[in-house]
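Issue 218. Parser rejects a valid record. Input:
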Amino acid sequence: MKKIVVLTGAGMSVESGLKTFRDAGGLWENYPVEQVATHEGWEADPTLVTNFYNMLRRKCWNAKPNEGHKLVARLEEKYQVVVVTQNVDNLHEQAGSTNVIHLHGELMKVCSSRNVEDVRYQQTLTPDNCEVAPGTKAGDGSLLRPYIVFFGEAVPNIERAAQEVMEADILIIIGTSLVVYPAAGLVHYAKAGTPIYLIDPHPVSAGGRVRQIQKGASEGMRELFAEL
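Output the parser choked on:
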């Protein structure tokens, strides 16, 4: 069975009503990145950061997977599929994708602020319990923080993602401008001759070996799904 790796960015979830972080009117607009998405911001005001991610979770639970998410999941009918996403939402999982690697963390999880990757202290939140009261402690006594890779922190899953791309027979990139590293560097791990498709409504300079479908996530996936 051929292996498809799908690399998705913020544009994947726009049709589900989740704004991208960088666009005009995006999620950062009312909050400086330094305040809510860096370790220094967390140290300075953990209450602000906790409340910011509580707000994002409420928005996320109101979002539903779009047709693009569902078609990515349906690729599993014919292919071995690994989704590598820069998104912190869980819309790929909601749509039915069974193998999802999150590069930048998961909004629906919280963890120890002393050791983010210690699975003993990671918790998955539910729709009816998606808010964390500021000051809540993890099992190790440290403050419970969002399971999000803050700017400046290492991306723990990047090597695993690179390995998956190396093994891909087909690489599909959806809704990412390929400018945010280290994720943008993943395309370079594809074997020579691997077909690479890029679905994005905006023109992206991605080199000669990439074929762009200049459409949104759902429309572009509809076109590519029919072709595959």
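Fixed in the parser; the record now loads. The mean pLDDT is 89.
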